[in-house]
Amino acid sequence: MRRRGVTVILGALITALLAAGVMISDLPYVVLTPGPTVNTLGSAEGTEVIQVTGAKTSSSAGELRLTTVNVQSKVELVQAIQGWLSGKDAVVPRELIYPPDRSEQQVQAQNAQEWKDSQTSAETVALRELGYPVQTYVRKVTPDGAAVGKLQENDVITSINGTAVAGPAQLTELVKAQPAGTALTVGYTRADKPGTVAVTTKAAADDKKTPRLGIEIDTKQPHPFTIKIDLDKIGGPSAGLMFSLGIIDKLRDEDLTGGKVIAGTGTIDDDGNVGPIGGIPQKLNGAKQAGAKIFLVPKDNCAEALRNAVPGLPMAKVATVDDALTALKTFTSGGTPTPCSAS
Q1: pLDDT-derived band of residue 11, with 50, 70 and 90 as boundaries?
Q2: What is the value of pTM for the model shown?
Q3: Most exposed: 38, 54, 60, 82, by fewest CB within 10 Å?
Q4: Residue 291 CB partners (closer than 8 Å, separation 6+)
C-alpha cells in the first residue's frame, strides 16, 4: 500500500477514536430535568408526609404538591445534545450547581440542611397562622444587669413602651431606640399572668453607647401537639411554602385545595415571606405532568416563569404565605388569583 493511503487510513482512525472519546467523556455541565412531585397531604413510599400527633387532622379531596428538579451530574456529549434539544431540560455549567471549591458531597450536605431548615420555618409559619404565635422569652437574667429583680427566667416579653414585640429582632430594635439609662416599660407574661415593670437600661460593658436590658433571650412557640415531616430524600429549601400550606390544611377543617391538584414552589422564612428558587422551567413541567391545575410562583421568579410558561397551567404570584392562602381561596372559588407579571 502506498504511503499516502496509509496516512489517510491512520488519520481517519485517529479521528474516529478522538470522536468516540469525546462522545463518552464527561463534560463540565449538568442536566436539569423535571423531578418528582410530592403531595404534602398524602404519603410517600407508604409513609405519611406530614404527621400530626395529639390533634385532630382533616382530609382534603385535592392535593398540595411540592415540585423538584433532578440533577444529572455526569453528562456525556449525547446527553448534553439531548438536553439542549429538549423543551423541558436545561444544560448548565457544572460550577453553577457544584462550585469548584466544594465537593459534590458538601453540596449535598448543604442541601440536606437547607431541607431541614425549610421544614422548621414552614412549621413556624403554619403554627402562627393557626393561632400559635412565636414568643420571645427570657432565657437568662444577666448578673448585675438592668433586669435583676424585675424580670425572671421564662418570662415572655410582650411589649416595650406599649409596642408589641413580635420577635427578638424587634425587641432589640425597641431597646436600642432609646439611649442607655432610659426607663422602659416592659410588658411580660409570667405563669400565664400579664404584668409590666420599669427597667432602666444600662450601657454594654464593651460599648458605652449600646443600651441593654440585661437579659438573654430566645424564642418558643407552644402548641399542644407535635408535627413531623417525614421526607428526607429531597434537598434544598424550595419546598418551604408547600410544607407550610400542607400543615395548615391538615390542621384546619377547611379544604384549601377545593378538590384540585395544586402545585408550587418557594422558600419560606420565619416571617412567612416566600423567596425565589431555581429550576422554575423544570418544576413547571413536572407540575403539569402531575396534573396540577395551578402553580404558585414566588414573586421574584415570575419573569422567568413567564418566559417558560407551560400551556394549560396558570400561574399565581405569591410573596407571602398569606398571598398563597388568598390565591388558593380565590382559585377554588372559581376566581382568578393574582397572575405572574414580568415586573
Answers
A1: very low
A2: 0.84
A3: 54
A4: 261
